[in-house]
Amino acid sequence: MQTTGIDASTFSPQALNYITHLENEIEILKEQINLLLMKRFGRSSEHYDPNQTLLFTAEEEGESAHTKAGHEKQVVKSYVRNGGRKAIDPKIERREKVIDIAEEEKQCACGHTMDRIGEETNEKLIYVPESVYVEKTIRPKYACRHCEGTEDEGKPAVRIAPVPPAIIPRSIASPSLLSHIMIQKYQDHLPFHRQEKQFERIGVEISRQDMSNWQHYLYQFLLPVFILLKGILKSGPVIRMDETTAQVMGEAGRADNTTSYIWLARGGPPDKTVVIYEYHPTREAKHIKAILEGYRGYLQTDGYEGYASALKTLPGIIHVGCFAHSRRKFFEAAKATKKPQSAEVGLSYIKKLYDIERELRKQNLEGNTFQEERIKLAVPVLSEFRVWLNKRANEVLPSGLLGKAVSYTLKEWEKLVRYVDHPYLTPDNNICENSVRPYVLGRKNYLFHQSPEGAESSCGMYTLIETAKQNGIEPLKYLDELFAKAPYATTTEDWEKLLPWNIFNS
């Protein structure tokens, strides 16, 4: 009974239960208000300082759970700020400009010419605005004026070199222009209507509709590449998945303001990372099944129930959870409750697991050795964490923020601990969620897709760019090379040579 100054004997058991219920409701509402205020006005980073007082409560809670549990205090190392400006990259071309004094100034009063004894220099970056030029292709025609071709009937009377294959025939768009436009939109997040204005400034008329049509044509032409990438995605030991919302206009039977989804899958062999983006109108489990059909291995995701539902009919896939989502719930509980000590204990256990992972990764151990060391160090922490979770589950309000954090972690526990089973697995799915970020940033600029076809082709461009990035290849160079060589591909072997890790070796 939390009520003070009241004689509990004056109330009936039913009344006391009702008062306790109201007090619990008040605590839950306070937590929700603090959490909303934190999300609205607080830092978005999930870094938590246990010695920092709550942003929206003035109560002093004394010693934190970290100190009580005997955790070592963290010492922030000092650093010395380097003076001066960072030098300009020496790889950038230098063009010298000499500012000399007049010849008469070089004459000394003694009658001799002054000697050059040194110099002072400074460097400035010069920006040259973008420019375009027209490549005019000329194909001379040849004919015999004497026999007019009658003596060589096996060949045409007028001979001319064949038209070189182009990824978009009868178009003004070159591979370099197309790659520039796609990179501007899908890496630099510049929508087509803004690019249209940019081209106008340098005297070129390219409409946003032309750019959109080109994008769709590229996607259709490069379908063999996407089929190969999806196959390679499923050839690795681990696939990570996530999804985010999208607004797509013109979907059949759906209002334009209906929420659609972009699904992301990241996998493949360790040396051939593939990032696949796919558009689907809904968040139904059937789309997960379509992406994973035929795959055998580990699947790491967040706690969305659609994944577990889809895996019921997909044999050979082991589901792995994400500790980042568990950590986020403990973080919110620690920041929004007036007594954050228990949530801090939960955060401290998760921090130990991440510290172990980070230190082992630094050692660059072989797969089996890494696996053995991680099991030896992480499993005891996991066991201790599980005991603490079970204890707290019986002590906290299930509907409170801490109760929800404990409940979520226990519910996902079997999936959360599976990351120790394979060296390519990590405690969380953050590497996949980071691959979602480029789409989210682009969505803030272009807001919606004008058609389902536009959403599909956009996913194709994101797939090419992000896969190139994950393999250490500059996306602009890759797209330029891909768009130039793709028209010559006729067989599966030809298309395989155009994958990011092969294209510059062929």
Task: Summarize this entry quickly.
By secondary structure, the chain is an alpha/beta fold.
Write the layout of secondary structure elements.
Elements: H1 13-41, H2 65-68, E1 141-143, E2 158-160, H3 175-186, H4 192-201, H5 208-221, H6 223-233, E3 238-247, E4 259-267, E5 274-280, H7 285-292, E6 297-300, H8 305-311, E7 317-320, H9 323-336, H10 341-362, H11 367-393, H12 401-411, H13 413-416, H14 430-446, H15 452-470, H16 475-485, H17 492-496
Parallel strand pairs: 3-6, 6-7
Antiparallel strand pairs: 1-2, 3-4, 4-5
Calculate the terminal CA-CA distance, rounded to whole Å.
76 Å
CATH topology of the domain at 226-321 and 429-470: Nucleotidyltransferase, domain 5
Arrangement of strands in the largest sheet = 5-4-3-6-7
CATH architecture of the domain at 226-321 and 429-470: 2-Layer Sandwich
> What is the CATH level 1 assignment of the domain at 226-321 and 429-470?
Alpha Beta
Helix content: 40-55%
Largest sheet: 5 strands, mixed
Mean pLDDT: 87
Q: Could you give the count of β-strands?
A: 7
As a percent range, the share of strand residues is: 5-15%
Order of helices and strands: HHEEHHHHEEEHEHEHHHHHHHHH
Task: Estimate the global geometry from the Cα principal axes.
Answer: extended
- Figure out the total of helices: 17
Determine the structural class based on helices, strands and strand pairing. alpha/beta
Radius of gyration: 32 Å
Give the uncertain stretches in residue-range form: 52-73
